[in-house]
Amino acid sequence: MSAARFVIVAPRVITCDPARTRPGDPLGVVEDGAVLVEDGVIRAVGARAELLGSEAGGVRVHAVEGVVTPGLVDAHTHAPWMGSRDAEYAVRLAGGDYEAIAAAGGGIVSTMRAVRASSVEALSATLVERLRRMATLGVTTVEAKSGYGLDEASERRQLEAVAEAGRDASLPRLVPTYLALHAVPPEAHGDRSAYARQVAERWLPAIAAAGLCRYVDAYVDRSAFSVEDTRPLLARARDLGLGVRLHAGQFADVGAAELAAEFGAASADHLEQVGPAGIEALAARGVAAALLPLASFTLRQAPPPVDALRAAGVPLVVASDANPGTAPTESLPLAMAFAARLYGLTVAEVLLGATREAARTLGLEASVGVLRPGLQADLVAWDLPHENALIQPWGCPRTRMVLRGGALLSG
Ligand code: NIG
Ligand code: FE
Questions:
Q1: Nearest residue CA, atom 2 of ligand 1?
Q2: Which of 13, 16, 143, 337 is 20 to 30 A away from residue 388, measured at CA?
């Protein structure tokens, strides 16, 4: 893939381009299609015969056998984490409750201890390995949250590791999010509001000034932070020009979806527990719902109200939530399979939710998530003949070739 100009031809090119979608073809599929790439950018997409016919001589052609899609975009991960929660898994398999384990000083705070003990170099090395595995699964863009440092220096180290990995073009693209309110660290002695104030007034401006994050996130839930704890943080984020995404309604509807709408968040994530008012608020502000089926599977929860979200016109995103507690995996394709099987999303909803709609929530709609001229040549050639095969729970890499900006990430 090193040549500056080449064409990929495939029996089925899934463009996800709204300019190509029609009733009955929500994915804008080009059969017997071709994608012309030049200097890392998509120059043309179309029928193979037309595209090759207009290319008078000399262009290198890579014929692939399976379906071709845009590179997958994972819009919710906690990728820069360290350590292992294997002891907790054993407790949970024996019936232990996730929130109770966290309340007793396990959960997020146990990963905090591993992160606090890690240098930027160690964080970055672990993150890079994780990102390489994600790339083998077809993922070319990853949103990466901090949130396991729980003090300013450690949160910064997590985000510096993301910045470091983000400079490496042989890895998926990275979008850094400061997960500012995730849990209360032991030294705050349970004083949530004082902790939240310090994060909003001191840590966030410093982290933003260092250019370490594009989004701010908070875990707004019954055993986490309240709407009142979180509002000053989001107001400050808005003043600093940062985007907002929220962990909303994973365990209880405490008004997080309405809060996400109030601040015009890019997405409200989880939403296993959201009522009609929250759904209406999301729809009115065009806030996407980022669905995280691996987390609800791990926690044995019922799915979010997908039919109501869809009926209200809330854009649907599917993400991995890769984290050591509730989604101990790195596989967006597995999340896609579960979104179809457990949540009842259509194949098209799943694919758009892991490409175009995900990119939109990351502010990257002008560069990735769709196969269209002018966008980055981030694409995947799958060892699978059809998109219906793509959303099955293979649990192993089924990519033949994964490109970021026209260059090979995996394959
Ligand atoms: O998205 N719920 C909050 N945060 C993560 C889990 C964090 C953890 O258990 O380490 C989530 O599910
Ligand atoms: Fe999460």
A1: 219
A2: 143
Q: Six-digit token pair at 185?
A: 């660290």
Closest atom of ligand 1 to CA, residue 221 = 2
CA of 247 to the centre of ligand 1 (A): 9
**Three-state secondary-structure class, residue 131:** helix
179 CA: nearest ligand 1 atom: 4
Q: How far is the CA of 15 from the centre of ligand 2 (A)?
A: 28
List every span in the chain annotated with CATH 2.30.40.10: 5-71+369-410
Q: Where in the chain is the domain with CATH 3.20.20.140?
A: 72-361
In CATH, 5-71+369-410 is 2.30.40.10? yes
Class (C level, CATH) for 72-361: alpha beta
Q: Is ipTM > 0.90 here?
A: yes
Which tens digits make up the pLDDT trace of 266-292? Answer: 999 999 999 999 999 999 999 999 999
The C-alpha atoms of residue 112 and residue 78 are separated, in whole angstroms, by 12
Confidence class of residue 242 from pLDDT cuts 50, 70 and 90? very high
Structure-block tokens of residue 406 = 């026209």
Q: Which amino acid is at 174?
A: L
Ion ligand 2 neighbours, Cβ < 5 Å: 321
Q: 259, 392, 277: which is closest to 337 by C-alpha?
A: 392
Contact present, 297 and 342 (Cβ < 8 Å): yes
Q: Are 403 and 71 in contact (CB under 8 A)?
A: yes
Q: Per-residue pLDDT tens for 316-357?
A: 999 999 999 999 999 999 999 999 999 999 999 999 999 999
> ∠ CA(310), CA(313), CA(318), 5° rounding?
55
Residues lining ligand 1, Cβ inside 6 A: 107-108, 111, 219, 247, 250, 295, 321, 323-326
- 260: its two tokens: 């996400």
**How many Å lie between the centroid of ligand 1 and the Cα of residue 323?**
6
